[in-house]
């Protein structure tokens, strides 16, 4: 599994977290269109040949609060066998874990602000490295250009594709207020702050991946099944064109 290829990566990532140094870009082994550009030292054996590990498939799932990302991710998991990693859920879990980041995450989320990139990336990577799956839905991340750059520098790769659930603001507010999950950030004032932050910071990320041809814009208004019928063909096409590739 892909975690076998990340043992060396893990130690270098932790070093990066402490030193906050930029990871240099590497050339990648051009073995398949769906390889994710892992650093060269992870793709090559001593003789310089790419090992036959399964390449991780990374999908970013973007959209404002209440756009239905989590619901659609659950259907993608059931239908296509992905591992769902919600950046928000990971942060909330860490927030109540008495870790050194807990109180900082609590204060940041309560103010409707974005948690520092290195913290979120570290939590995501921890989950990816501990998983036996190689297909990942990263839900709610990156939330800014700074997030995006940090992820690509630390991981050494870009996502294979990006889903954007496009939903009107009034619909997102209505959905968040009605879900009643007891979350500290599910009140009208914080929701409006989160939407302003999303519009200011996340839309440049969406534009970036649109220009690279990786963005799939989903109309997030309708029933769960109606919306999923827009999502399904994206992943069916990947299956046809070589979803479970090796490098």
Notes on the structure:
The protein is of the alpha/beta class and 247 residues long. The chain has 10 helices and 5 strands, in the order ααβαβαααβαβααβα. The chain has helices at residues 7-19, 40-43, 69-80, 87-95, 102-110, 117-129, 145-155, 169-179, 188-211, 224-242; strands at 57-63, 83-86, 135-139, 161-166, 215-219. A 5-stranded parallel β-sheet has the order 2-3-1-4-5, with helices on both faces. Helix 4 packs across helix 5. Residues 3-52 and 243-247 have low confidence and may be disordered.
Name the average pLDDT. Answer: 77
Number of alpha- plus pi-helical segments: 10
Helix content: 40-55%
N-to-C CA distance: 12 Å
Rg is 18 Å
Strand content: 5-15%
Low-confidence stretches: 3-52, 243-247
Element pattern in H and E: HHEHEHHHEHEHHEH
Q: Main sheet: which strands, in order across?
A: 2-3-1-4-5
Overall SS class: alpha/beta
Largest sheet: 5 strands, parallel
- How many β-strand runs? 5
- The gross shape turns out to be globular
């Amino acid at each position: 599994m892909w975690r076998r290829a990340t043992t060396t990566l893990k130690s270098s990532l932790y070093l990066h977290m402490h030193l906050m140094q930029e990871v240099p870009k590497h050339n990648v082994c051009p073995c398949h269109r769906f390889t994710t550009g892992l650093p060269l030292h992870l793709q090559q054996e001593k003789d310089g040949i790419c090992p036959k590990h399964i390449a991780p498939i990374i999908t970013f799932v973007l959209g404002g609060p209440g756009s239905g990302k989590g619901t659609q991710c659950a259907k993608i998991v059931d239908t296509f066998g992905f591992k769902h990693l919600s950046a928000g859920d990971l942060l909330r879990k860490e927030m109540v874990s008495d870790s050194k980041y807990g109180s900082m995450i609590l204060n940041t989320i309560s103010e409707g602000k974005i948690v520092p990139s290195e913290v979120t990336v570290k939590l995501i990577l921890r989950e990816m490295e501990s998983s036996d799956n190689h297909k990942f839905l990263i839900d709610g991340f990156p939330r800014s250009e700074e997030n995006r750059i940090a992820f690509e520098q630390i991981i050494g790769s870009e996502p294979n594709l990006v889903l954007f659930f496009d939903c009107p603001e009034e619909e997102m507010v209505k959905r968040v207020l009605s879900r009643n999950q007891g979350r500290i950030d599910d009140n009208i004032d914080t929701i409006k702050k989160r939407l302003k932050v999303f519009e200011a910071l996340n839309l440049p990320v969406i534009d970036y991946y649109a220009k690279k041809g990786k963005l799939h814009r989903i109309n997030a208004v309708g029933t769960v099944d109606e919306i999923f019928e827009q999502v399904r063909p994206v992943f069916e096409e990947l299956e046809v064109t070589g979803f479970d590739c090796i490098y």
